[in-house]
Amino acid sequence: MKHTISVTVLLLCFVALMLPTYGDNALSQDWVPTTILLDENLSTSTANQILQTKDRYIWFATYDGLVRYDGTTFKTYNAYYEPSFDANSVRALFQDSKDRLWIGTNDSGLYYYMDGVFHGLERSDGFCYSMVLSIAEDQKGAIWVGGPDGLYQISITDHQTLQSDLVNNVALKDICVDCHNRIWAVTASGALKRLSESHEWLTPEELPEAQTQQIECIESVDGEIWIGGTDDRLLLCHSGQVWELMKGSDTFGLEAYTRIFADGSRYIWFCADNGIGCYDRIQNTFLDVNQGNIPIRHAVESVIQDHEGSLWISSSRSGIVKLSAGKFKNITTENGLTNEIVNAVLNVDRQLWVGTDHGLTIIENGAVVENELTALLEGERIRHMMRD
Q1: 48, 38 in Cβ contact below 8 A?
Q2: Residue 168 and residue 201 in contact, taking contact as beta carbons nearer than 8 Å
């Protein structure tokens, strides 16, 4: 006996059922990759660092200069295009609490960009070395700069006069400031250090000496310090006192970390030689983001998630790729349904009713609902549904 069911309807005829998704966790979506060509006149297609500033511009530190993306076009700043920015190789980017964009170069010292104008530090300001690898800001607004020639502290007066002091001459490759306003650093030899009040580098006494070696990068986020090793070690320091050691088995196999970056929202990003990692601060867990159609899996130098939820990833081997969050999610796969033709779909009292060649499927809150109606229509071809 054939049964006729009437309910109101939206007709679809897809092999797989797809619906729009607007979740808080953009990482759960399918990615649409786009290879990024910054400037056809540049000799490089990679970035040492990517940063989105509060005005939503995206900046790229490249070996051919500084590149800005406004959502439509890319603009290059270097000694050829911008006389006030006499640099052709950029290594580090940082935006401070006063919205200044600080730019560390490979061979031309330190600049900051504000209100459309570049300002450079000269030897007369006390800044005496050319390579800048890392930039941070303390709780008093002072800027700290690390590089092969040591650690500098920079302050800017009300009249925009720059003052720079060499604090320590140990070669550094990364620095950060913790919640207690202490300066932490990774030395050029890969040792983890903390600056004393007398401006001497100390080895954290809370950690065994073996855990303070072979370190590559460091970042301070909301009172916690994340430290990436040249192997698969990832160290986490809670409030500057309690230490936690994680290995590759905890981080979906990441190893040889290159950079750690907090995007200002819920995620902490990890760049590594074998892919990218992501820690969800709300769920307190690592997310496996190296699945699906992410095209960059090696030698990752920088990753950010922009205000639209897209990922920007730079690799020294694979260039720059933008991964746009997909507008649709696969309901069939997500709910473990069989892959068959869908003839009709309708939202009924916050339930999704799906009519197929083999019956009716009802989905509610991400789960399949079975009731007398679905049992009654099992095996029946449902071509149309409507509600009177």
Answers
A1: no
A2: yes
